[in-house]
Amino acid sequence: MKNLNVGLISVGWMGRLHSRAYLAAAHHYPELPVRAVLKRAADPDAGGRRHATDVLGYEAADADYRDLLADPAIDLVSICAPNFLHHEIALAAAAAGKPFWIEKPMGRSAEESREIADAAASAGVVTAVGFNYRHAPAIAHARRLIREGAIGDVTNVRVAFLADYSSDPLGALTWRFERARAGSGVLGDLLSHGFDLAQYLVGPLARVSADTETFIRRRPLPSADAASHFSRGAEDAPAGDVENEDYAVVTARFDNGAIGVFESSRIAVGPHAEYTIEVYGTRGSLRWDFQRLNELRLADDPSGYRTVMANPRFGDFGRFQPGAGTGMGFDDLKTIEASLFLRSVAEGRQLAPSAADGWAAAEIADAALRSAGTRTWVDVPRVAGVTTIGA
């Protein structure tokens, strides 16, 4: 059994989740030829560094991620820093020859995402991108049904990623609302997942027509300790302009002729994380909602929808639970992702969602932004490199 030394860059919520997922992979995938060792973490915040060593179990922690990347003992890295640091860190990781697992949106734009994917390809390193929803066992079953023709030829797709994390007008104007640091709003933050999920199930998108809106145009400036988009500002605090979109709607054509409708909001009052995909075909349809991630709604005969519970025949469900009715959770999806990344590194081939997949989602988001600006249909550029959409 070979050990792979993990380097973690940024010890926030997602960095902590990556760390747990690496360790959990050994329990759920005992046949993996490698084991992850939490070797070194990097975070400019002293509290984050203490958490890395004292709670997560990393052997050492640095203030500067460059020191971590310069360590020849580090075999792979997780990039969990804010969006505006992804490009810089990913290029540095590729230059150092380190395979990397990066969260989405991979870059703030399609250009940044292309540069990341190209750098990884040039360096010959495998990658992983945090498209965790595609790892739900119910999605694995849906994909198999679609490929087997159980619902006939796909005619249309509906995707809705609706959240309320920014519905409070007093939510602080953190970096997520700044175009220079976050890039787009819901198109990159939420619909990048939706675009990837739709392409994973149905196939590549060819062209899009979109519209966007910023409904909460000004927000209170953040206090010194405001770190996330859940931070709240004071009613009498100075305010600043929101620079990216709260809401987006996209009509799309797939390569195979199917029509797609994508909708996303970060200011919806009611849904917390209502992330849904519906695929309709000539002989049936199916529906999946992240809020009920262990269920698939399936209509493949005239009697209409029935609920099919995830079970050990669906994807990797049996790795986590012995039978239907005992559900998996969000963290389990990241454990599947970690196992794919570890296998990719061990076998030297791309198994996890790739940097090219991250670039593909970014091209759709950028095409949607161009369409919203020009009020025209926009073709989605094709990406180079190894994607796992059709794998």
Automatic annotation (TrEMBL):
SUPFAM superfamilies for the chain? Glyceraldehyde-3-phosphate dehydrogenase-like, C-terminal domain, NAD(P)-binding Rossmann-fold domains
The molecular function GO annotations come to: nucleotide binding; oxidoreductase activity
The family database entries (Pfam families) matched by this protein are listed as:
GFO_IDH_MocA (PF01408), GFO_IDH_MocA_C3 (PF22725)
UniProt entry keywords in alphabetical sequence: NAD, Oxidoreductase
Outline the extent of the Gfo/Idh/MocA-like oxidoreductase N-terminal domain.
Answer: 4-131
Q: Superkingdom of this entry's organism?
A: Bacteria
Q: Which InterPro entries match?
A: Gfo/Idh/MocA-like_OxRdtase_N, Gfo/Idh/MocA_oxidrdct_glycsds, GFO_IDH_MocA-like_dom, NAD(P)-bd_dom_sf
Q: What are the GFO/IDH/MocA-like oxidoreductase domain coordinates in residue numbering?
A: 140-287
This chain's protein is named Myo-inositol 2-dehydrogenase
* Species in which this protein is naturally found: Microbacterium mangrovi
